[in-house]
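Before the break, one more example. Copy the sequence into your notebook; we will annotate it together after we see the structure.
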Amino acid sequence: MRTVDLSAVERVRVLTRFSSGGVSDRVLLVRDRDGVCLGLRETTDRCRLRRALERRPPHGPQPHVSRAALAHLGMRADGTGPHTALSRLATVLGLCGYLSAVVVVAEQIPGQGLTHECR
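Here is what the structure looks like once it is written out:
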């Protein structure tokens, strides 16, 4: 079992996963100063992380917390809409790029390309 030191958080991001019905899961990825990285998805874990971030002293090193993570934690009012839209766009563009690369490679294989002549 691994633990992350909430008093030494260095970075917080959100990982959004999609299903055919929309957003299927959001996971807060937390990294501490020792390099331990954990994904938090439970409500109690989110509450603990939020309290730890709110209790940080204003002086000293501050963790890098993405806007989407702040919104997911309820510490920012604008919500996760922009993050969700950009994540969905990146997923679609990544899949299109992958499929395009597969087509280009398949066309380079002699006799195995996607086009063929009918005789």
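The CA atoms of residues 68 and 105 lie 37 Å apart. The two ends are 64 Å apart (CA to CA). Try to locate both features in your own notes.
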